[in-house]
Amino acid sequence: MPKIAVIIGAGPAGLTAALEFARRSDIHPVILEASQEIGGISRTIRYKGNRMDIGGHRFFSKSDRVMEWWMKLLPPQATGDEIAYQGKRRRVVVPANLQQEPPLRGMGPLTRQSEETEEIQEPVEAEVEAPVPADDDLVMLIRTRQSRIYYLRRFFDYPINPSADTLGKLGILRTIRIGFSYVASRLKPIEHEKTLEDFLINRFGRELYGTVFKSYTEKVWGVPCDHISAEWGAQRIKGLSLTSAVAHFLRKTFGPKSKDLSQKGTETSLIEKFLYPKYGPGQLWEHAADLIQQKGGELHMGWYVDRIVIEGNRVIAVEAVNESGERRTFAGDYFFSTMPIRNLIQAVDCDVPANVREVAEGLEYRDFITVGLLVNKLLVTEKDGAPLMDTWIYIQEPDVLLGRLQIFNNWSPFMVADPTKTWLGLEYFCYESDELWKMADEKIIEFAVGELAKIGIVASEDVLDGHVVRVPKTYPAYFGTYDRFDEVREFTDRFENLFLVGRNGMHKYNNQDHSMLTAMTAVDNILLGDMNKAGLWEINTEQEYHEEKK
Known about the structure:
FAD/NAD(P)-binding domain, disordered C terminus
């Protein structure tokens, strides 16, 4: 009988694990998804022919493995010899006996044990090539990144750069304060970075932190920056600093133009190009789900896992219930969980130490609302009068709750049914207990329109239609009991065949690619007979940052 991998959740991590098993082994993947949607927060919402991307998903990774995985599912749209990933051969390091699988970037050289010799083989080089699209719809578009900050009713480049335009908008006095403040932070940095405020001040100076980062970050999390762990910065903005932003601006302005989509020397926050599925992120994950089922895998929608059956130090089964109250047991050999840690610990059917329950119950999440607005036009334009080119805009204005604004037309023109209209996504960060979350959809739309009009982006009479999407537990928070998370990890790691992967599964604010890498690494380990989970927790950890802390 083939072995079975039971996977909780049909988001990027769960679907990646299932497709890896289906492609590379005879282990049978069984996915249990509580909702009726594929892709988790990377799904595409459809509304009257228009599509919404929840949170905005740039398909870009410093990992060759992830980039090639994506391009194998949805090849880049043929536009000629434009970038290094398109039709150009290049050399990458891959494990000797898994030549189709490039390694995880930043994890050190991968080695594999040969079944024939039982010796460790060193990596070898292989050539890879982007495939040619077989379907005009199953493609990735190549998009140019433009994101800006909207502050003082003006647009600023993101990140802030020393252009004449930026300096003029900031004003001479504020610019001088920013410069002196940054020099002071470099000469005398905060020694022990405990909070996100410490992390940001050390990299940008106190003045620029207060001008650009503080208001927006506190909108996102709903708590002061000095209440958030510095690890959030290490997880999300890594090598970004005022120095790296200025260096990037100088390279972009005076350096040669690169056509290499890999952008290896560029901080992820500063990339110039990225891939994007023609019909939004959900298109890729829906295609992945189709491939899993074509290869014999199972996908059960609407099944919520509420019991995890333990025997000794192993999981032997999970129980799930559907909307009609039907209950089923799914036995397996390996178990992957992408469900929130709090729910996982509540579902574990064994004695859970009191401290572990306390930490799990104290973990916090930030919830998310996207309001889609279809409008005739925007009141703001580019300098030459052309429509805005931004994919998203950070709203730094303190007099509105709006955190970020997406322009779906600029992600892909196929996201909007009528190209003469502009399809917007207004992003609000909140808790399920907040008044905003509890409002009726019509009231939320009215509120959102009022905020856009208040800051001068849209005239109320130009709004044609609206749609509201609520997403609970979108962002695992780095406060609450997070500083004691190792107590939970120590408990869950003791179950040898249970693998926590993905954003909520690990309570790590991962990007999509890092969630995928956790799943890939777990599958790699299982196929090698290695149940050690230490490598999973290191993915997307800023090593230099932790070395600095030590």
